[in-house]
Amino acid sequence: MNHPAPAATPTDFAAWMQVQLARVEQALSDWVGADAPAGLGEAMRYAVLDGGKRLRPLLVLAARQAVAAADAHDATARAGHDEAALRAACAVELIHAYSLVHDDMPCMDNDVLRRGKPTVHVQFGQARALLAGDALQALAFELLAPDEAGVPEPVQARLCRLLARAAGSSGMAGGQAIDLASVGVALDEAQLRHMHRLKTGALLQGSVMMGAACGQADAAALAGLSAYGAALGLAFQVVDDILDVTQDAATLGKTAGKDAAHDKPTYVSLLGLERAQAHAQALRHDALAALAATGLPDTRALAALADLVVHRAH
Amino acid sequence: MNHPAPAATPTDFAAWMQVQLARVEQALSDWVGADAPAGLGEAMRYAVLDGGKRLRPLLVLAARQAVAAADAHDATARAGHDEAALRAACAVELIHAYSLVHDDMPCMDNDVLRRGKPTVHVQFGQARALLAGDALQALAFELLAPDEAGVPEPVQARLCRLLARAAGSSGMAGGQAIDLASVGVALDEAQLRHMHRLKTGALLQGSVMMGAACGQADAAALAGLSAYGAALGLAFQVVDDILDVTQDAATLGKTAGKDAAHDKPTYVSLLGLERAQAHAQALRHDALAALAATGLPDTRALAALADLVVHRAH
Q: Is A72 left (phi over 0), alpha (psi -120 to 50) or beta?
């Protein structure tokens, strides 16, 4: 999709995605654990490499593509923004990966299976899992603020700002705290939505806004992208809840049915399966409408990712 | 010490320190846990407020003072750099605080007492302690990258870079991993120094360099400040090892003698008490010599902090 094309087709998107995934995997492999002490680097790489759908990195790169037109004829600006976007793509994945490592620990969800492999604390012990998660969060910010990579420092600062907010107590970590406090508590839909908006939504929406920060976008474009990210983030969680009851562990690559087992409120327990499925479709529609409102010339990859999120099987 | 004075006296420094500590305590109280869900914010504030020597924040602010002469006559630049330094001072303290929360957990040091109070996981449970630590790390970077505080974005980017490197796998987290792997292992002095250079030294030296990034400093000044930070960081650890065997828990505010109990190598176990004390004095001398080599006009607060580190009783 680096060439101008009049319309998106599934083939276009599949080819684009394949190229982007290869870039992300290579960059993660180059950057994760490279200068860590052996035992720590090994746990960090285990947590990040060879697994994961890389949805968040793809959102960053698709949003970067949507705002790329403004610097298409300035090779230096383009190279700096492309490098920034690749770093941002890896950084959001590191935040996601660290949250899974800590979330799986015995004092949290106590999960032993993740992406079809033993979880990090099962493989390396709890102490090393704790440290690996901590080091992955620091590495995310280190990637965003390189001293010699051609990324303008104002872009670096904005990326750090967006990621810190998405990851912290008013974002992902805050949502996890609400989730923790909600076991066995009857949440209504508004409370459930608030919890998920922080727990998973903030980082998904943050991924979109970080991609948008790697280029030029006016206020209308940013508002549209933000609305897209919010709808997609919620859709992701609704579908997650649906898959938790409709798929088995082999398909999911993690323990199935665990929400019900932990007596955690979900969209399925709240709305029933059929209305939850309709809700996911409505959110997909909202996401696509928000994209149309951005006025940006090429939002095809973002649109395809909304489809992917709603129609995925794991 | 905001007024020009010809020489440092203990009274000068005490007054300066009192003013700076009040600024830091107020800022931490304003910023920590402010927009976190209740249970999480409470644990974050418990971990950070009302305790701690604030050595790292003082190092940031003392280094900022050492480079402040360059913008003394530009009110806008001065205000931006002062704000940046206060944020950096709080950010390094949040990284330090989160590392203590995680380090005290049962899967790490399993400590129940810290700064004379029950540790965070004892008070709030392990899950919330884990999340509070994670959220404190994110908040550190959030403080460094504000969108409306007059801090130039290039300064924000440099502060994020310095903090991420000091906190991550080639800094503090890396040192903790080496420490973890060294229990019951006979380290020689070079290995012990490498471990501490990462575990505690990186963040102490990083504090100095972050302060220096809040202003203008030439290569010679940066090299001198870096050498000062390295010597002070090591001195801090040598003194820590000495205090662990010479002080009781009431004075330390934490469990005493735990290094020996955990069969961890220390400077005292390696050098003996007397040579360890001489080593601390030699490092203090190195730190002061490095300051003299910076060519900076006012390094009195940094010099006084080196004295404080070596002569402290807890």
A: alpha
Contacts of A147 in chain B (CB under 8 A): 161
Which residue of B122, B169, B179 is the best one to mutate when testing the A interface, meaning the one whose CB has the most A CBs within 10 A? Answer: B169
Q: Report the sign of the C-alpha dihedral through residues B283, B289, B295, B300, in that order.
A: positive
Question: Does residue B112 sit at the A interface (CB-CB below 8 Å)?
Answer: no
User: Who has greater pLDDT, B309 or A185?
Assistant: B309
A40 contacts on B by Cβ (under 8 Å)? 169, 173-174, 177
Task: Kindly report, residue by residue over B205-239, the tens digit of the pLDDT.
Answer: 999 999 999 999 999 999 999 999 999 999 999 99
Nearest to B154 among A35, A154, A170 (CB): A154
Asked if residue B184 has pLDDT above 50, the reply is: yes
For position B3, what pLDDT does the model report?
Answer: 36
Question: pLDDT over 90 for what percent of chain B?
Answer: 78
Residue A130 has pLDDT above 90, yes or no: yes
Distance between CA atoms of residues A144 and A151, nearest Å: 9
What's the fold here for domain B10-311?
Farnesyl Diphosphate Synthase (1.10.600)
Rounded (to 5) percent helix, strand, coil in chain A: 70, 0, 25
- The interaxial angle of helices B55-66 and B300-311, nearest 10 deg, is 160
Mark which residues 143-202 of B lie under 8 Å from A by CB. Answer: 144-147, 153-154, 156-158, 160-161, 163-165, 167-171, 173-174, 176-178, 180-181
ipTM score for this prediction: 0.94
Give the per-residue pLDDT at B42: 97
Q: What are the residue ranges spanned by the domains of chain B? A: 10-311
